[in-house]
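Tokenise the fold.
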Amino acid sequence: MTGTTGEVIAELRGRVGCITLNRPKALNALSLGMVRDLMAVLLDWQRDDKVLAVAIRGSNKEGAFGAFCAGGDIRFLHAAGTVGNPQIEDFFTEEYALNHLIHNFGKPYIAFMDGIVMGGGMGISQGGTLRIVTERTKMAMPETAIGLFPDVGGGYFLSRCPGRVGEWLALTGDTIGAADAIAFRLADGFLPADQQAAVWQGLGEQGFADGAAVQQWVLSKTIAAGACQISVREQIDHYFSLADVPAIVAALEESDDDWARATAATLRRRSPLMLHVVLEQIRRARAMGLADDLRMERDMVRHCFYLRQGQSETLEGIRALAVDKDHSPAWSPARIEDVSPELVQAFFRSPWPAHAHPLAALR
């Protein structure tokens, strides 16, 4: 499959399949149509012996690169979730299947993670065999700010960060840059932003012997990313290894350290319920393979939109951030200390028997 599909541009250049996300006004946030286009082209290229490797990039209002992907289309999710549009079910089922395909693609998959890489953007890059970042990379899983959880395999890849970095990133939604992304095993190489175009052009001009040669050639263009910006690894591991969310927040608030207190203030703004759910998610996922993690997340997202009798934290969080933009979500429960274990555990009960799960086929 080669050609323009509107919001996804797919072209075979030489023996490399090149994908450009082409929804720059929305920072390339993924629509259901984009998920379907990506799935179709990747399945086609996976089977095509002429295609040695795949490369993917985003675009901005001025052209290529500059923004990778800001996540899923949360305005669509709010509209669909509010009226019970069944396409919301299709979106998550098909997006998670796409994430699984990328992790198991079987050919080099090279993600140029320039600019914003958040949420669903992490889902279509973390499974890559070579994840390239630049000095403009802003990476995060900020879902707790909208009453959601780091999905798209977030439990799987965040739980495999060193120490308790996964818990910290998942609960706070804090943004990291290139050097930290590499140190935290969420990226593999640093490429200055102004060199991306030449490397991308070269993918179509080199005579590669095989897929490994494609990946090695791109990797050879990367340079050292510089020093880590995060100097608080010991604090992250100390606080975010505590037993539960109330213990983490209490310890942060009792500290006289500026970073700890700022982190506590961030957590106090997040959905109390989803903080508890997310901590459980990351810790469960540490012992899971990707397919089981995605099935768990598919269960969780059904609960987020449908199974709280009109009290969806996610719909309320998106409303406050992106629809009404009052930035004053009415979380329920309102306080971290008021979340009951029963509310949390409900998110981990599957609404489907195993044989009928929407992602039953993932292995």
The chain has two domains: 1-137+177-229, 231-363. The mean pLDDT is 95. The domain at 231-363 is CATH 3.90.226.10 (2-enoyl-CoA Hydratase; Chain A, domain 1). Residues 87-103 form the longest helix (17 residues).
